[in-house]
Amino acid sequence: MTHVGSVLYSQGNRIEFLETAGTTNGARVTVRAVYAPHGTYPPAHLHPSQTETFTVVQGELRVRMHGQDRTYKAGETFRVPPRVPHAMCNASGAPAVVNWTVEPALRREAFFEALYVETRDGRGRSSGLKGLLWRAGLLWRFRDEVTLAWGRRIHPHGERPKAVRPS
């Protein structure tokens, strides 16, 4: 169980809990994330009912959202509304430090714990069927917090391009 000051590590990344669901009556979770240099984008994903707000404290963070890539630098803040597909990484050569708030908290703390601890311990990095089943189970358990943007491009306002029928 997380508390203010808890720290999780995985693959060169680190998050420290600054606020928890318990300290905010479920209103939010805030972490300070340190992203390792030369990262790559994770799969595009969205949060069905949570808003994420990021403030870059040090370094820079590349964000893919609304059909474009943008790099945010120290002192800049951006928000990811619910249901908007996005992905982000630190593509620079130096660590990036980001304050990251999720509202409402829901079970985001437990999701972070499962993702960081199980990835660190090797279960989430397994290739083949074992890794696929672990990731599918994680997404199923935390489907109210995160879902992959299946079949969606990271497109303006989370909309999918409409198919055009030949005339």
UniProtKB/TrEMBL annotation:
Residues 34-100 form the Cupin type-2 domain. Transmembrane segments: none annotated. It comes from the Bacteria. The keyword Oxidoreductase applies. The keyword Repeat does not apply. InterPro entries: Cupin_2, QDO-like, RmlC-like_jellyroll, RmlC_Cupin_sf. It holds the Pfam family Cupin_2. One of its GO terms (molecular function) is dioxygenase activity. Keywords: Dioxygenase, Oxidoreductase. This is Quercetin dioxygenase-like cupin family protein. It comes from Deinococcus yavapaiensis KR-236.
